[in-house]
């Protein structure tokens, strides 16, 4: 079960990244990890650093993917982003926090992809 969740998450990130690149974003890093946790994607566009949380599901049984982001997860992503910006000497860089929600079908294709800019 855990492997299936990891596979779904990785596929969702792949699909989200492909979408962002098609939209003109540039990848800074993927799966940035530190002692505070992990951020799925860090991208840039128009001089703004965008921290992206990707949520992927294969069924609506437990709701929509974007509904699964708790306040504590949002707070953790913000703390990780602050840490990242500090380590990159980019504390004054304009930033945004986006969510990309991906529903994945039987053929491992995106059934829907919802990009929510400035989600939190």
Helix segment tally: 2
Structural class: alpha+beta
Distance between the termini: 30 Å
Number of domains: 1
The largest beta-sheet arranges its strands as 1-2-3-4-5
- Give a short account of the largest sheet: 5 strands, mixed
The top-level CATH class is Alpha Beta
Average pLDDT figure = 91
What is the CATH fold-level name? Trna Endonuclease, Chain: A, domain 1
- SS elements, strand count: 5
Low-confidence regions: none
Q: Tell me the strand percentage band.
A: 35-45%
Order of helices and strands: HEEEHEE
The percentage helix is: 25-40%
- Global Rg: 14 Å
Q: State the CATH architecture.
A: 3-Layer(aba) Sandwich
The shape is globular
């Amino acid at each position: 079960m855990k492997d299936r969740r990891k596979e779904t998450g990785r596929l969702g990130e792949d699909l989200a990244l492909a979408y962002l690149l098609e939209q003109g974003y540039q990848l800074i890093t993927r799966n940035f990890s530190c002692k505070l946790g992990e951020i799925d994607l860090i991208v840039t566009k128009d001089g703004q650093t965008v921290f992206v949380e990707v949520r992927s599901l294969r069924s609506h049984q437990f709701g929509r993917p974007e509904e699964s982001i708790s306040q504590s997860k949002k707070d953790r992503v913000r703390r990780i982003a602050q840490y990242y910006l500090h380590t990159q000497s980019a504390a004054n860089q304009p930033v945004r926090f986006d969510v990309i929600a991906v529903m994945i079908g039987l053929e491992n294709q995106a059934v829907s992809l919802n990009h929510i800019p400035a989600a939190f």
